[in-house]
Amino acid sequence: MANMAQLSTAVYQQLRTLPTGCVTSYGQLALQAGYPGYARQVGAILRGLPHDSDLPWHRVLRADGRLPFTAGTTEFDEQKIRLLKEGIQVDGDRVSRRYFRSCAVS
DNA sequence: ATTGTGACCCTTC
DNA sequence: TGAAGGGCCACAA
Asked: What is the spatial distance, in angstroms and rounded to an integer, between the CA atom of A1 and the C1' atom of C10?
């Protein structure tokens, strides 16, 4: 089990540290927040974010690098635009893995 | 108590 | 690369 209240808090805090130009996955985010195995709940949390939130929700993708929304939907376009605006190359409905959290030099 | 439902993930072909 | 199958966990009905 887990206290969802602090899970969301931990997730918010963790997400806040994700630098511009970097992306991560739901699973990684959950892990870094201290809740391994809670990827789905992370999704549920982001789903509940107000549309005008300051948090970089768009930097969270699936583990395989694809966007979580079906191509064509407004949500999909919104996220894609935000990513491109940060200089993250989006190829169709996915992003190259090198953008994943090791923004550090390679 | 059971069942279905996700902005999910991983291992194996 | 990509599909399939199974695992995962909180929540609502």
From this structure: 8
Picking from A37, A47, A99, the residue whose alpha carbon sits closest to that of residue A68 is A47
Model confidence pLDDT, tens digit, residues A40-55: 999 999 999 998 899 9
Domain segments of chain A: what residues?
4-54+63-99
Question: What kind and span of H or E run contains A105?
Answer: none
Write out which nucleotides of chain B lie closer than 7 A to a protein Cβ: 6-10
Q: How long, in residues, is chain A?
A: 106
Identify protein residues whose C-beta is within 7 angstroms of any atom in strand C: A 1-2, 4, 37-41, 44
Question: CATH number of the domain at A4-54+63-99, out of 3.40.50.300, 3.30.70.270, 3.40.980.10, 1.10.10.10?
Answer: 1.10.10.10
pLDDT in tens, A53-63: 999 999 999 99
